[in-house]
Amino acid sequence: MSDTTTCIKCGAEGAYFDGWCYVCEECGYEWGDQEIDDDDDDDDDDDDDDDDDDDD
User: Fold this and answer.
1) Whole-number Å distance between alpha carbons of 28 and 20
2) CA 27 to CA 48: how far, in whole Å?
3) pLDDT tens digits for 1-29?
4) What's this model's pTM, rounded to 2 decimal places?
5) Of residues 44 and 10, which shows the higher confidence score?
6) pLDDT number for residue 24
7) Exposure pattern of 8-21 as b/e (b: 16+ CB <10 Å)?
8) List of residues 6+ apart from 13 with CB closer than 8 A
9) Where in the chain does DSSP place strands (E)?
10) Helix or strand (DSSP H, E) at 49
11) So what's the pLDDT on residue 1?
């Protein structure tokens, strides 16, 4: 299992979790688990909106 992940800002591989947040080695962006969860929720909301349009 790898300790690195992909940066959610620049897309570079090699970001790592420093014990508090994720850090991108390329651009220096830092983010937490909450930002990843928020991005996933936004995608789900878009799908739900499409279903509502079909009912109208």
Assistant:
1) 15
2) 34
3) 467 799 999 999 999 999 999 999 999 99
4) 0.57
5) 10
6) 96
7) eeeeeeebeeeeee
8) 4, 5, 6, 7
9) 4-6, 13-17, 22-23, 30-31
10) helix 33-55
11) 43
